[in-house]
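Task: sequence design from structure.
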Protein backbone atom coordinates (compact mmCIF):
# COMPACT_ATOMS: atom_id res chain seq x y z
CA UNK A 1 0.00 0.00 0.00
CA UNK A 2 1.35 3.41 -0.97
CA UNK A 3 0.70 6.70 0.83
CA UNK A 4 0.47 9.78 -1.32
CA UNK A 5 2.25 12.99 -0.33
CA UNK A 6 -0.10 15.34 1.46
CA UNK A 7 -0.21 18.92 2.67
CA UNK A 8 -3.04 18.08 5.06
CA UNK A 9 -2.48 18.39 8.81
CA UNK A 10 -4.83 15.65 9.97
CA UNK A 11 -5.65 13.53 6.92
CA UNK A 12 -3.63 10.94 5.02
CA UNK A 13 -4.56 9.00 1.89
CA UNK A 14 -3.10 5.63 0.97
CA UNK A 15 -3.79 3.38 -2.01
CA UNK A 16 -3.87 -0.35 -2.54
CA UNK A 17 -4.57 -0.72 -6.23
CA UNK A 18 -8.05 0.63 -6.87
CA UNK A 19 -8.86 0.90 -3.15
CA UNK A 20 -8.12 4.10 -1.23
CA UNK A 21 -7.95 4.48 2.56
CA UNK A 22 -8.58 7.94 3.98
CA UNK A 23 -7.47 8.32 7.60
CA UNK A 24 -8.18 11.36 9.74
CA UNK A 25 -6.27 11.51 13.00
CA UNK A 26 -5.72 14.57 15.17
CA UNK A 27 -3.55 12.54 17.57
CA UNK A 28 -5.54 13.68 20.60
CA UNK A 29 -8.94 14.83 21.89
CA UNK A 30 -10.39 11.42 20.94
CA UNK A 31 -10.12 12.52 17.32
CA UNK A 32 -12.83 15.17 17.67
CA UNK A 33 -13.51 17.27 14.59
CA UNK A 34 -11.89 20.69 14.54
CA UNK A 35 -12.46 23.11 11.68
CA UNK A 36 -9.22 22.13 9.98
CA UNK A 37 -10.21 18.45 9.84
CA UNK A 38 -13.66 19.31 8.49
CA UNK A 39 -12.19 21.37 5.66
CA UNK A 40 -9.52 18.80 4.84
CA UNK A 41 -11.96 15.89 4.63
CA UNK A 42 -14.28 17.97 2.46
CA UNK A 43 -11.44 18.71 0.07
CA UNK A 44 -10.50 15.03 -0.06
CA UNK A 45 -14.05 13.99 -0.97
CA UNK A 46 -14.25 16.56 -3.74
CA UNK A 47 -10.96 15.35 -5.18
CA UNK A 48 -12.39 11.84 -5.52
CA UNK A 49 -15.20 13.18 -7.74
CA UNK A 50 -12.80 13.31 -10.68
CA UNK A 51 -10.88 10.13 -9.78
CA UNK A 52 -11.69 7.54 -12.43
CA UNK A 53 -9.30 4.83 -11.19
CA UNK A 54 -10.32 4.50 -7.53
CA UNK A 55 -13.32 2.19 -7.14
CA UNK A 56 -13.86 2.17 -3.36
CA UNK A 57 -12.78 4.29 -0.40
CA UNK A 58 -12.42 3.29 3.25
CA UNK A 59 -12.78 6.12 5.76
CA UNK A 60 -11.21 5.52 9.16
CA UNK A 61 -10.21 7.59 12.17
CA UNK A 62 -7.74 7.18 15.01
CA UNK A 63 -6.95 3.66 16.25
CA UNK A 64 -8.63 4.31 19.60
CA UNK A 65 -11.54 6.46 18.42
CA UNK A 66 -13.21 7.02 15.09
CA UNK A 67 -14.30 10.43 16.40
CA UNK A 68 -15.68 11.95 19.59
CA UNK A 69 -17.71 14.42 17.52
CA UNK A 70 -17.18 18.14 17.19
CA UNK A 71 -14.38 19.59 19.29
CA UNK A 72 -16.17 22.07 21.55
CA UNK A 73 -12.79 23.46 22.62
CA UNK A 74 -11.68 24.35 19.10
CA UNK A 75 -11.34 28.12 19.09
CA UNK A 76 -12.00 28.34 15.35
CA UNK A 77 -15.49 26.91 15.92
CA UNK A 78 -16.48 29.68 18.29
CA UNK A 79 -14.52 32.60 16.83
CA UNK A 80 -16.69 35.70 16.55
CA UNK A 81 -17.30 36.76 12.94
CA UNK A 82 -18.68 40.15 11.91
CA UNK A 83 -19.78 38.89 8.49
CA UNK A 84 -23.14 37.07 8.72
CA UNK A 85 -22.52 35.26 5.44
CA UNK A 86 -19.17 33.98 6.69
CA UNK A 87 -20.75 32.93 9.99
CA UNK A 88 -23.50 30.98 8.24
CA UNK A 89 -20.95 29.41 5.92
CA UNK A 90 -19.00 28.13 8.93
CA UNK A 91 -22.14 26.58 10.39
CA UNK A 92 -22.67 24.70 7.13
CA UNK A 93 -19.17 23.24 6.84
CA UNK A 94 -20.27 19.93 8.36
CA UNK A 95 -23.27 19.78 6.03
CA UNK A 96 -21.00 20.30 3.02
CA UNK A 97 -18.55 17.71 4.35
CA UNK A 98 -21.15 14.95 4.64
CA UNK A 99 -22.78 15.85 1.34
CA UNK A 100 -19.40 15.68 -0.38
CA UNK A 101 -18.82 12.17 0.98
CA UNK A 102 -22.32 11.03 0.05
CA UNK A 103 -21.87 12.37 -3.48
CA UNK A 104 -18.60 10.54 -4.12
CA UNK A 105 -19.02 8.13 -7.06
CA UNK A 106 -16.92 5.45 -5.36
CA UNK A 107 -18.36 2.99 -2.84
CA UNK A 108 -17.47 4.33 0.61
CA UNK A 109 -17.09 2.30 3.81
CA UNK A 110 -16.65 3.82 7.27
CA UNK A 111 -14.43 1.78 9.62
CA UNK A 112 -15.08 2.73 13.24
CA UNK A 113 -13.01 1.84 16.28
CA UNK A 114 -13.63 2.91 19.87
CA UNK A 115 -16.49 5.33 19.47
CA UNK A 116 -18.36 7.38 16.91
CA UNK A 117 -20.08 10.33 18.57
CA UNK A 118 -22.24 13.07 17.09
CA UNK A 119 -20.40 14.38 14.05
CA UNK A 120 -18.55 11.05 13.88
CA UNK A 121 -21.90 9.31 13.39
CA UNK A 122 -22.97 11.96 10.88
CA UNK A 123 -20.07 11.39 8.49
CA UNK A 124 -20.38 7.62 8.85
CA UNK A 125 -24.07 7.88 7.86
CA UNK A 126 -22.98 9.68 4.68
CA UNK A 127 -20.96 6.61 3.65
CA UNK A 128 -22.50 3.65 1.82
CA UNK A 129 -21.61 1.06 4.45
CA UNK A 130 -20.40 1.09 8.04
CA UNK A 131 -18.24 -1.32 10.05
CA UNK A 132 -18.08 -1.04 13.85
CA UNK A 133 -15.60 -2.77 16.13
CA UNK A 134 -17.09 -5.19 18.66
CA UNK A 135 -15.92 -3.07 21.62
CA UNK A 136 -17.03 0.26 20.11
CA UNK A 137 -20.26 2.22 20.31
CA UNK A 138 -22.31 4.90 18.57
CA UNK A 139 -23.61 7.91 20.48
CA UNK A 140 -25.62 10.98 19.44
CA UNK A 141 -25.62 13.37 22.45
CA UNK A 142 -26.56 16.63 20.71
CA UNK A 143 -29.95 17.05 22.40
CA UNK A 144 -28.32 16.51 25.79
CA UNK A 145 -26.23 19.64 25.24
CA UNK A 146 -29.10 21.62 23.74
CA UNK A 147 -28.30 21.22 20.05
CA UNK A 148 -30.20 19.65 17.19
CA UNK A 149 -28.64 16.89 15.10
CA UNK A 150 -27.33 18.54 11.96
CA UNK A 151 -24.76 17.89 9.20
CA UNK A 152 -27.71 16.45 7.22
CA UNK A 153 -27.64 13.41 9.51
CA UNK A 154 -31.27 13.33 10.65
CA UNK A 155 -32.92 12.36 7.34
CA UNK A 156 -30.16 9.81 6.67
CA UNK A 157 -30.83 8.32 10.09
CA UNK A 158 -34.60 8.17 9.50
CA UNK A 159 -34.04 6.47 6.14
CA UNK A 160 -31.90 3.78 7.77
CA UNK A 161 -33.84 3.00 10.95
CA UNK A 162 -37.30 4.57 10.60
CA UNK A 163 -38.87 7.49 12.50
CA UNK A 164 -39.51 5.85 15.89
CA UNK A 165 -35.98 4.51 16.28
CA UNK A 166 -34.52 7.76 14.96
CA UNK A 167 -36.40 9.64 17.68
CA UNK A 168 -35.12 7.27 20.34
CA UNK A 169 -31.52 7.56 19.15
CA UNK A 170 -31.60 11.35 18.97
CA UNK A 171 -33.89 12.28 21.86
CA UNK A 172 -32.81 9.78 24.52
CA UNK A 173 -29.09 10.04 23.72
CA UNK A 174 -28.45 6.37 24.49
CA UNK A 175 -25.12 4.78 23.66
CA UNK A 176 -25.58 2.01 21.12
CA UNK A 177 -23.35 -1.06 20.96
CA UNK A 178 -22.59 -3.01 17.78
CA UNK A 179 -25.23 -5.72 18.19
CA UNK A 180 -28.07 -3.23 18.49
CA UNK A 181 -26.61 -1.05 15.74
CA UNK A 182 -26.47 -4.05 13.40
CA UNK A 183 -30.00 -5.15 14.32
CA UNK A 184 -31.36 -1.66 13.69
CA UNK A 185 -29.56 -1.31 10.34
CA UNK A 186 -27.14 1.44 11.37
CA UNK A 187 -24.09 -0.66 10.57
CA UNK A 188 -23.42 -3.48 8.12
CA UNK A 189 -20.64 -5.49 9.78
CA UNK A 190 -19.14 -6.03 13.23
CA UNK A 191 -15.37 -6.45 13.38
CA UNK A 192 -13.07 -7.74 16.06
CA UNK A 193 -11.42 -4.91 18.01
CA UNK A 194 -8.70 -3.33 15.92
CA UNK A 195 -9.97 -4.96 12.72
CA UNK A 196 -12.63 -2.50 11.56
CA UNK A 197 -10.45 -1.14 8.74
CA UNK A 198 -9.57 -4.66 7.60
CA UNK A 199 -13.22 -5.72 7.45
CA UNK A 200 -14.12 -2.47 5.70
CA UNK A 201 -11.33 -3.18 3.25
CA UNK A 202 -12.86 -6.57 2.44
CA UNK A 203 -16.19 -4.91 1.66
CA UNK A 204 -14.40 -2.32 -0.44
CA UNK A 205 -12.55 -5.00 -2.42
CA UNK A 206 -15.78 -6.90 -3.05
CA UNK A 207 -17.37 -3.74 -4.42
CA UNK A 208 -14.29 -2.89 -6.46
CA UNK A 209 -14.43 -6.29 -8.13
CA UNK A 210 -17.76 -5.43 -9.75
CA UNK A 211 -18.00 -3.63 -13.12
CA UNK A 212 -16.98 -0.08 -12.29
CA UNK A 213 -19.39 1.97 -14.42
CA UNK A 214 -22.38 -0.15 -13.44
CA UNK A 215 -21.48 0.08 -9.76
CA UNK A 216 -21.34 3.87 -9.97
CA UNK A 217 -24.68 4.04 -11.78
CA UNK A 218 -26.41 1.75 -9.27
CA UNK A 219 -25.06 3.72 -6.30
CA UNK A 220 -26.30 6.93 -7.86
CA UNK A 221 -29.71 5.40 -8.58
CA UNK A 222 -30.14 4.06 -5.03
CA UNK A 223 -29.11 7.39 -3.52
CA UNK A 224 -31.42 9.33 -5.82
CA UNK A 225 -34.33 7.14 -4.72
CA UNK A 226 -33.60 6.83 -1.00
CA UNK A 227 -32.40 10.40 -0.48
CA UNK A 228 -34.89 12.24 -2.69
CA UNK A 229 -36.34 14.31 0.17
CA UNK A 230 -33.23 14.58 2.34
CA UNK A 231 -32.25 18.03 1.12
CA UNK A 232 -35.82 19.31 1.39
CA UNK A 233 -36.11 18.21 5.01
CA UNK A 234 -32.68 19.27 6.28
CA UNK A 235 -31.68 22.29 4.17
CA UNK A 236 -31.86 24.57 7.23
CA UNK A 237 -30.46 22.26 9.89
CA UNK A 238 -27.37 24.40 10.47
CA UNK A 239 -29.58 27.48 10.83
CA UNK A 240 -31.64 25.56 13.38
CA UNK A 241 -28.44 24.71 15.23
CA UNK A 242 -27.45 28.38 15.29
CA UNK A 243 -30.83 29.09 16.88
CA UNK A 244 -31.04 26.22 19.37
CA UNK A 245 -27.55 26.90 20.76
CA UNK A 246 -28.83 30.26 22.04
CA UNK A 247 -31.69 28.81 24.10
CA UNK A 248 -31.23 29.30 27.84
CA UNK A 249 -31.46 25.63 28.75
CA UNK A 250 -29.08 24.79 25.91
CA UNK A 251 -26.47 27.22 27.23
CA UNK A 252 -26.89 25.77 30.74
CA UNK A 253 -26.56 22.22 29.39
CA UNK A 254 -23.29 23.05 27.63
CA UNK A 255 -21.92 24.67 30.78
CA UNK A 256 -22.66 21.48 32.71
CA UNK A 257 -21.02 19.44 29.98
CA UNK A 258 -17.95 21.69 29.92
CA UNK A 259 -17.58 21.48 33.69
CA UNK A 260 -17.76 17.69 33.58
CA UNK A 261 -15.26 17.61 30.71
CA UNK A 262 -12.88 19.83 32.67
CA UNK A 263 -13.08 17.53 35.69
CA UNK A 264 -12.38 14.56 33.41
CA UNK A 265 -9.23 16.29 32.12
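Answer:
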Amino acid sequence: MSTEPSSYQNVTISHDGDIAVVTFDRRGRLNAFDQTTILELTDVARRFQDDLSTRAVVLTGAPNAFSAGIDLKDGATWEELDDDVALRSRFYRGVRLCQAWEDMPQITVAAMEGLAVGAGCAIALACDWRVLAADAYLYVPEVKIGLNLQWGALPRLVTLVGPARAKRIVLLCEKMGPDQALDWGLIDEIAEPGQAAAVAGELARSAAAMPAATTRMVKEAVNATANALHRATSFADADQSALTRTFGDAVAARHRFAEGDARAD
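The chain has one domain: 2-264.
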